[in-house]
Amino acid sequence: MDLGIRGRRGLVCAASKGLGRGCAEALAQAGVDLVINSRTESEITRTAREIADRHGVSVTPVAADITTQEGRARVLEAVGQADILVTNAGGPPPGNWTDWNRDDFIRAIDANMLSSVALMQALVPGMMDRGWGRVVNITSQSVRSPIAVLGLSNTARTGLTGFVAGMSRQVAGRGVCVNNILPGIHATDRADSLDKGVAEQQGISMDDARRQRQAGIPTGTYGQPEDFGATCAFLCSQHAKFIVGQNILLDGGALNVTI
Ligand code: NAP
Question: What DSSP state is assigned to residue 248?
């Protein structure tokens, strides 16, 4: 299917690997010129080169911490204006609800809620002026079904979801569609580090920890960043113009709900 976005300009945050990279690859395959970001210069430069070589689009890397104002300013300067925005950042650390203090909450909310809000505030007005835009925020399945040890993530991402629910309806009439994708467990370094935590906590091997978590997913597998990216690219496509303010759960059926 032609996604109808060849020649568009996009920003994908936190994209040197994992889900962000999956999105960048799929958008590049659809012909979108990109600015991609992550903190480690060597990694983001290598990823940009690989994506550009593979798909023949322009890919500009920006090494910056997207959760800081200074980092966002540098990324936004490199982007100029964008038709497509994918917001993403690392997730907050696990822990216990009794241990988190105000600073922990502020850090999580800054990283996983307010950074996305600030990027939308910077880029969506231009999309509205030009009459076309797509935004995908990468959040988490924890928005629909909380994961207690990831309480900082539950809190920040649910806040972002509430914000998007309102503003997406305010901008849809100007051709801008804003949606969230909620990843369940995907095979990325983040999943490895969570498996490691489970293995250490339960005194089992990494393989056993993984098998245990896979057993809770109806597909019996972890999701793949490539498939995640393809969904993101569809939401950024010409064909997604009637999808507004939605929370698309990609979890292999793990969440046992009717709707
Ligand atoms: P990942 O494989 O660890 O990749 C994270 C990417 O983000 C890397 O490119 C990393 O590069 C970059 N990054 C991290 N913090 C950043 C920051 N402050 N500024 C800019 N770039 C940053 O993680 P992932 O699995 O793709 O997860 C992406 C998001 O989805 C996370 O928020 C995660 O919590 C959420 N999520 C993932 C899963 C899953 O199963 N994978 C499930 C639910 C939710 P640098 O370290 O070089 O910056």
Answer: E
